[in-house]
Structures are given as C-alpha cells and as structure tokens.
Amino acid sequence: MTRRSFLLAATALASHLMPRPAAAAWPDHTIRLIVGFAPGGTADIMARQLQAPLAARLGQAVVVENHPGASGMTATSEVARAGADGATFLLAVSTHASLAAINRKLPYDVEKDFAPVIFIGSIPLVLLIDPRLAIRSLPELIAAAKEKPGALSYGFPGIGLSHHFAGELLKQRAGVDITAVSYRGTAPALNDVIAGQVSMTFGTLPAVMGAIKGGLVRPLAITAPARAEGLPDVPTVAESGYPDFDVSEWFGVIAPAATAPAVVRRLNAEIDAVLSEPGPKQWLRQNNVVRGPSTPEAFGARIVAEIANLTKVADKAGIAIE
After folding, report:
1. Same fold, 16-122+249-317 and 124-222
2. Segment 113-157, tens digit of pLDDT
C-alpha cells in the first residue's frame, strides 16, 4: 500500500468512527416546542415552564409555538412532517393516544412517525357533582344511576378526551346508564354542573379547584390510582369499588421519528433535569402533576398500552371519528 493510499484509508476510517456532526453539535439553532392548544391552557403553561430553564441548559433559544386545532391533530401533523433537523418537538398530551383509539384515519401514525422523548407527568381527573343532589359518594352515585337509568348526565369537554373516556369507563365498569353530553371545553361543562343543567363532570384539578374550594361543586372521586395531594380526603375510583381504574390527563415531549437517537437522549436528560429545578418542581407539585418513568422507552410503552386500553373502551362505547 502506498503512503497516499494508507492516508486515505486512515482518514476514511476515522471519519466513519467519528460521531455525526449534527448530533455532536446539537442544538445548533433555535428549538421549536409546538403546543396543539391555545395559550393559557395547561399544556401551554407546562411548555412555558420548560422554556427558559431548558434554553439555559441547551445554550439555545427555545420558542413555544401554539398551533391549536382538531384536538391537537394540527400540531401533531406538523411535527410528524418536521424531519430530522432536531429543532422541532411536540408538547404532547393524552389526546395523542386517545385520538388514535377513536380515529382510524389520522394523518400520521402515532407509533411509526414519532420518537418518544420524555414523559413529564399526569394530572388526575376528579369526578364533580352538582352539590344540590343528595349524593355524597361514588357508591351513592352508582346506586342512583341504577335506580333511574339515564336520569343522571355527565358533561365532557370534547369527544375522545380523557374526560370522555373517564365517563364511559365508569359506566362500563359499574354497569350503569348515565347520559353523556358533549361541550366545547371544560369551562362550559363545569358551568352547567354549577347551574344544575347536567349532574356531573370530570375535570383536571388545576381547572376545577377554584369551583371545589368555592363549594360550587362536590368532588366524589379521583380517577388516578392514588389520591391527589390537593384533595387528600377525596377517595379514588379504585378505593370506591372499581380496582385498577386509571384515567388521567398526561403530558410529555415527542420528536419526529427521524430525529437522531443521540438528540432524543440529550433532550430527555435535559428536560428531566429541568423538572427537578425548584421553579418547575414547585409548579408540578402545586398542580398535582404526578411524575412517572421518564425514559424514552418507558414513555413509548405507555403510549402503546394506553392506545390498546382506550380502543377497547371506545369500541364498547361506540366512540369513533371517521
């Protein structure tokens, strides 16, 4: 082998063994964190809790962009098309899984078009009832529903949201007929419970805590496996007679499928560190956000399992979007 051939071969080998520049230099430009809901909602607030500390850790600007529409599908579709530049990520919520359970014609494949980055946490739902009703526990509610099928009603803020699935799963597990009423958001459903137009609703604690403290609604049960720190005296649905009942609103970050694994790992580690900083940690606690296994693999497994579970509930309840 000539000296020139040797040098060329050595250069090629070194180049092959070197990490890819895009991953090694990441991030080399502004990070976009896309939110599929309007400013001011829980998902938007959570994204902005990450924004400044994450930018400081990455050494690059992080921009939160709100692209509301179609229960999050608009933003999710955009992220699916973003490619492998490592600059565009989605602040995903539980509709990422629930829409896949009820819509067979999504413009993307939840499992193939995305790379899970990190599970941030879940917020339990609380079952709220009109306080003028003589019902003070979940067993009393079920007894009343069995006595007069269809007489009670529950409001929910959109087809396929976790609130909707909580109501349908409770009906299926308890074997009762409670009329479902769809609203355009949590606030209208809550207002109609307060006004006595519907019997009950489900809501995330940050959205309904004011109404609970004001005595406008009566909390009966928490839909998560454990009681909520903000409502320690309210039992879970599981404690009230329906084991393994778990429906929560969750949040996480996902990337386009083509994103380099090294980028996914780095972003996972940085967001995990941010969530342990005093400011974000305090916000999570104040809003009853429950952390969970946060590796990309664990988050991906959670999404797959949730789609399977919700599909069973949806099929039985006849919930579908064509």
Report:
1. yes
2. 999 999 999 999 999 999 999 999 999 999 999 999 999 999 998
Chain length of the chain: 322
SS3 of 182-202: ECCCHHHHHHHHHCCCCCEEE
Interatomic CA distance for residues 161 and 150, integer angstroms: 22
Q: Which CATH architecture has domain 124-222?
A: 3-Layer(aba) Sandwich (3.40)
d(CA 128, CA 217): 6
Contacts of 237 (CB under 8 A, 6+ apart): 127, 138, 170, 221, 222, 223, 245
**Is there a contact between 240 and 139 (Cβ–Cβ < 8 Å)?**
yes
Q: Report residue 166 as tokens.
A: 């909580």
The per-residue pLDDT for range 155-198, each reduced to its tens digit, is 998 888 899 999 999 999 999 999 999 988 888 999 999 999 99
CATH topology of domain 16-122+249-317: D-Maltodextrin-Binding Protein; domain 2 (3.40.190)
pLDDT per position as a tens digit, 25-40? 899 999 999 999 888 8
State the Cα–Cα distance between residues 285 and 275, nearest whole angstrom.
11
